[in-house]
Amino acid sequence: MTDTTLSQPTASLGVGSIIGESFSILLKHFIQVVIVGFVPNLIGFLISGLLVGFGAALGIQPQEFTGPGSAVANVLSILVSMVVYSITTALLVQLAYDAKLSRPVQLGRYFGPALSAVVPLAILSIVVSILVGIGLVLLVVPGLWVYAVFAVMAPAVVIERAGFGGLGRSKYLTKEYRWPILGALVLAIICATIINIVALFVVGLVASAGSIGMVIGIILFAAISTVGAGFLSILVALIYARLREIKEGVSVDQIASVFD
Fold this sequence. Notes:
This protein is an all-alpha fold. It has helices spanning 4-7, 15-28, 30-52, 54-58, 68-100, 107-138, 140-149, 153-160, 166-174, 178-207, 211-248, 252-256. The protein has one domain. The chain is globular and about 55 Å long. The termini are far apart. This is Glycerophosphoryl diester phosphodiesterase membrane domain-containing protein. The chain crosses the membrane at residues 33-60, 72-93, 114-138, 144-167, 179-206, 212-241. It comes from Roseibium aggregatum. Keywords: Membrane, Transmembrane, Transmembrane helix.
């Protein structure tokens, strides 16, 4: 007797629709997205600048490794970047669902859930980055595949309070959908990279004007780079929502209700 469950087609992730909706949310709520990411990014760049130098923090000067002290400073700078990424992602995940449901975007309401999730999110982000880095060293595809496996770790931690179980939760949700997720993420990363290249070009021009130019450059880079990071965070939030819908029958309004 044939097992009918084996013949059932897998529901489509709908990558094109998710990417289109992510762009729509970004453009419609552009100012709010920039505000959400700007403050953490700016604070992160200031701290990194004090640790490794502002030129190195912005990427317009090479990082120096002159001894144990500089190595520790660079490691701390990376940790600061991870924490900033975690806070920004946790904030934008909530914004994305309010925007998708056409609910008012209330930035002040997002900080409590974001801060409560920042420790596991930051630590797991470091773990994923190490795993992806190892995969990229071996071959590019394994690194990208690992990225796809743990792509929705951040929404799982923020929304489900999964804590350090966020990796396992992401692994379960992304199963059978990793190739389309990978395609969407690669497109988002390309967009974010282009935006960051433009930001670095602008910063390079402005920073050449001296110390005042460097200050303006830091502010500009924090603002411009937020756009690419914001798009990626919104995309991941919508991928997570779609996976929950497919695998568990959970609607977006049910997902967003945890913040009410």
